[in-house]
Amino acid sequence: MRRPSTVELMLLATVLLWSLNLSVTKYMLEQGFLPLSYATVRYGCAGAIFIALTLVVERTLRVERRHAVVLGVAAVILFVNQLCFIFSLDLAAASTIGLVLGSTPIFAASFGLVLGTERPSRRFWLSAAISFVGVGLVAIGASGDAGGELLGIVLGLGMSATWAAYSVAMGPLMRTYSPSRTSAIVIPLAWVGIALVGLPQTTEQDWNLGTQVWALMVYAILGPLVLTNVFWFRSIHRIGPAKATLAANLQPFVAAVLAVVLLSEPLGALQVVGGVLIAAGILVARRTRRPQAT
Predict the structure, then answer these.
(1) CA 191, CA 40: separation in Å to the nearest integer?
(2) Left, alpha or beta for 181 (phi > 0: left; psi -120 to 50: alpha)?
(3) Is the pLDDT of residue 293 over 60?
(4) Which residues, 6+ apart, have CB-to-CB distance to 71 below 8 Å?
């Protein structure tokens, strides 16, 4: 078997960091962080880091006027994505939200097909179908009161759809700008909306949360937000959003396993079988040709 490519290693690191972040965020919410206060602090710090990093490395945040509208739309999409993310985890188990994210490749391929930026092959759709069946088995195998988590699941689907839309929208810009420069613009713009919506919770937040919670916040900022943004969009530039999001379909099973270990959330036999199918779908996708972009 051939060695994993650089892109595949970046995607693997992204999946692991994102998967762990679901459990980390769920834990922080359980320890007293209000949802919008968490999002406000996290995105505010990440935005500042990206601005500083881009100014040091590239010495400019300039973008062409014709791309400004796309970046503005992307900021709105990311704003909605983060609201879905934080409230879905506030309402549902981390393992449940993790498995729902398996729908992201379907959204990404559909958006790309409509916009003409992706031309997924038949083998891609086969691999996506295999993985989606795996996600379904993970969902069926989830124990507990699914009805009580219905709103969280709906928001999780919204998170998948908006992340897919964000990835498709940003993909073409990677030919012109670095991930750092686009993030230095989009993340602060999204933060403005988050901060305004979250102002009531932020003013009510008890900030005496303990050293452990703040250490986890550092991880949540630097790992699954700053580092993965760079890895993710470099991968999209190389292989396209549809195939990149398909590789991320491993996240549901990884997130469920981490939730079992870290949060004592249940993991049944059907979920294990589902995880195997998700991995099988990704192996099928590795044999596909690179999606063509227009």
Answers:
(1) 7
(2) alpha
(3) no
(4) 63, 173, 182, 185, 186, 189
Distance CA 67, CA 63 (A): 7
Torsion angle (degrees, nearest 10) of CA 169, 175, 176, 180: 70
Q: Which residues contact 198 (CB under 8 A, 6 or more apart)?
A: 35, 36, 37, 39, 40
Reference 180, options 22, 51, 275, 68; nearest CA is 51
Q: Which two tokens stand for residue 27?
A: 């834990």
Going from the C-alpha of 5 to that of each of 1, 9, 12, 227, the distances in angstroms are: 12, 6, 11, 18
Distance, in Å, from the CA atom of 244 to the CA atom of 233, rounded to the nearest integer, reads 9
Reported as half-sphere exposure (CB side, CA atoms, 13 A), residue 19 has a value of 24
- 10 Å Cβ neighbour count for 120? 23
Q: How far apart are CA 233 and CA 214, in angstroms?
A: 27
Q: What is the pTM of this model?
A: 0.81
pLDDT in tens, 220-229: 999 999 998 8
Condensed to tens digits (0 to 9), the pLDDT of residues 16-60 reads 898 899 999 999 999 999 999 999 999 999 999 999 999 999 999
Residue among 208, 202, 198, 185 nearest 70 (CA): 185
The ranges assigned to domains in the chain are 6-285
